[in-house]
Amino acid sequence: MKLTGYLIEKYNRMTNAYTCNRLVEEAGQLGIDLKIMGIHDTMVTPDEIVNAGQALERRDFVINRYKWGKIKDHINRLAGKSYNEIENYNIYVNKYEQIRNLYSDSFLVPRYVLGTASLPYEEIVDRIGRPFVAKGLESSMGAEIFLITREDDLEKLAGGFDAGKEWLYEEFIETSYGKDMRFYSIRGEAVACMKRSSQGDFRANVALGASVEPYEITPEIKQIAKDIYGQTGLDFLGIDLLFGDDKPYFCEINVMPGIEGIEKATDVNIARRIMETIRRDFAYDE
Prior knowledge:
Elements: E1 3-9, H1 18-29, E2 32-38, E3 42-44, E4 49-51, E5 54-55, E6 59-64, H2 71-76, E7 79-83, H3 86-92, H4 95-101, E8 112-116, H5 121-128, E9 132-136, E10 145-148, H6 151-160, E11 166-171, E12 179-186, E13 189-197, E14 211-214, H7 219-232, E15 236-242, E16 249-254, H8 260-266, H9 270-281
Parallel strand pairs: 1-2, 1-6, 6-7
Antiparallel strand pairs: 3-4, 4-5, 8-11, 9-10, 9-11, 12-13, 12-15, 13-14, 15-16
Helix pairs in contact: 1-9
C-alpha cells in the first residue's frame, strides 16, 4: 500500500520552488505519493476542504511549509501525522516564542525587548544597547529585519508599518556582522551545516544573495540540535546561530526551512533524509 501525503504550500503550482520540488522528487523515488496543496487554491466549507474543485481525502501525513492562517490547520486534520507537528509549529513560527523559550548551555541569548515601534528609542537603547536589530515576529528570508542605528530609523519603522505591529528588538552582535551559520536538524541530529556570508549587508540570508560554504558540525552544534529538539519536539528544523567571541549566539529557528543553500553547500541530500524519516515512521523501510 502506497504511503500518501500533502505538502502544504502557497500554491498548487510551485514550479520554481526548489525545496518543494526536491521533496516531491525524493518522495517519488521512495514510492511515496506526495501532493503539493496550495493554501491559495483551497477553501474550507462546513462539510469539506476543497482544492482546485476537488474535495480532499485523508492522507497518511502532511508536511507544513506555510505559516499563516487557519486553512493549513484544517488540512492537518486530514492526516495521521504532521511534520512539523502543527501545534508546536504554530508556536515556534514566532520569533518571540523562540527567544523566550529556547535555551542551551552551548549558546548565548542576545538581550531583547518586545514592543511596538512607538516605544521611546532611548528606552530600548538603555536595555539592549546601540545599534540594535528589529525583527518582525513571523518574518522569513531576511524580510522585516532592520538594523536600527539612530532614532530616525525607529521613526521610519513606525511610519512604514501598522502602529500596532509588535517587534522583537535584539542586541546587535557585532562579531557576526554579515555572517552566520545555519544547520539542519532532523530529530535532534545536526545532519548538515553551512556558513553564510553577505557582502555589505548585516543580514546573511541566502534569499538576499549571501554566499554559502560548508561548516564543521562541532560537538556544540550537536548539543544545540539535541537541546532544541528536546524543547520543541519539532522533527525538521533550520537552526541559525550568530558568531560570538566565546560562544555562538542564538539567532532563530526556522520551522519551514528551505534546503537549497544547505544542500548545495554541503552535498548532503536533505530532502532524501526527510522523506526517509517519514517513511520509517510508517514502517515503510526497505
